[in-house]
Design brief:
It comes from Actinocorallia herbida. The protein is 44% helix and 15% strand. The chain is built from 13 helices and eleven strands.
């Protein structure tokens, strides 16, 4: 087991208050002031809108001087999601794959070796399952997975030549079962997993069981907790600071500490809301779309939801109405600091 006391705790830039408006240099300095240990930049374009090599290297050098890790995002590898990222196609002068390759090369040349990617999108404003690309009707999810695997196969030689990993997120639309199959098929020498601890709940996965499944391939993370509440249409997930939701953090972190080839903990906070997304467990079509779902995972999600609901009834946890309110800026920053404190406490206990 690695020295858990050395596992760095950082933050995702997209949810760090002030980061989108003030840029990468400001973000690094503020993160350092806050006592965090790294930044997960969601896009390389945050470091340099033109992918200028000098600008990219300057940000990485500043991070080194401040003692911070830097991880960077690229773009989605599902070609059916490509039309929603026109900036990547523009980078490739009309060729989306070429634009994605440019992002990868630019990051590698700047010294960034761990790169984020994902498979699809989630339309948060749309109700029900159709907000999730998994349930698109113009193209099936299995067809999207097959197309994604083909893109990964084409990217593999470039990634190996550059010595970098492209780490696919446990995003809202994909299961850990599917991600592990994709990574094993494409090759763990070029691909890994970005483990989002709250997103796996949306696919009705026990987060601890999910951690055990993905641990051998985890090279990046998005860490946050979640509240689960039983509703007339199933279960509703709300994002929470680590330690204030349903996740058993010692049990979840233990397999990552033991087996993940590379481990940083990047807190992904909240913006203006807690993203109350549905698990439509009473919908037969929703179940049909989850061929890997086990009764054990389903039972565990119901148990966690019931447990959280009882805490709400006892007055020890916020309920549906409170969780549905807008999140003020001060509370967004507190989300990160409270998560940091809890994660460090758990890591110390594991040591």
């Amino acid at each position: 087991m690695r020295d858990v006391r050395a596992v760095p705790v950082g933050t995702d830039s997209s949810k760090f208050p002030g980061a989108p408006e003030n840029g990468a240099e400001w973000t690094l300095r503020e993160v350092h002031k806050a006592g965090l240990e790294g930044v997960f930049f969601r896009s390389a374009l945050e470091l340099s809108p033109t992918l200028d090599p000098g600008e990219l290297r300057a940000i990485v050098q500043l991070a080194d001087e401040l003692g911070l890790y830097v991880e960077v995002g690229t773009a989605k590898v599902n070609p059916f999601a490509a039309p929603e990222a026109p900036e990547v196609r523009e980078l490739g002068e009309g060729d989306y794959l070429r634009g994605l390759e440019r992002l990868i090369v630019a990051c590698a040349e700047a010294g960034v070796r761990e790169l984020w990617s994902a498979t699809a999108n989630y339309k948060f404003a749309l109700p029900g399952r159709l907000g999730c690309d998994r349930f698109r009707t113009d193209v099936t999810w299995s067809e999207q997975l097959e197309a994604t695997a083909k893109v990964m196969a084409r990217l593999g030689p470039l990634l190996r030549d550059l010595g970098v990993h492209l780490n696919l997120e446990t995003h809202e639309e994909i299961t850990t079962f599917e991600l592990v199959r994709l990574v094993e098929e494409a090759g763990p020498d070029a691909f890994g997993i970005t483990f989002d601890t709250a997103n796996v709940l949306l696919r009705c996965e026990d987060p601890v069981a999910a951690a055990h499944r993905v641990a051998p391939y985890v090279r990046q993370t998005h860490v946050r907790d979640a509240a689960l509440l039983l509703t007339p249409d199933g279960i509703r997930r709300f994002l929470m600071p680590c330690g204030q939701g349903v996740i058993d953090w010692p049990a979840l972190l233990r397999p990552l500490v033991e087996h993940a080839p590379r481990l940083t903990l990047s807190i992904e906070g909240v913006m203006g809301k807690r993203f109350p997304l549905p698990l439509s467990i009473y919908d037969p079509l929703w179940h049909d779309g989850h061929p890997d779902l086990t009764t054990r995972d389903l039972a565990e999600l119901v148990r966690l939801s019931d447990s959280y609901g009882r805490a709400v009834a006892e007055g020890t946890r916020p309920g549906y109405e409170e969780l549905s309110r807008p999140v003020p800026v001060a509370e967004r920053f507190a989300f990160i600091t409270e998560s940091t404190a809890h994660l460090r406490t758990v890591l110390a206990s594991l040591a």
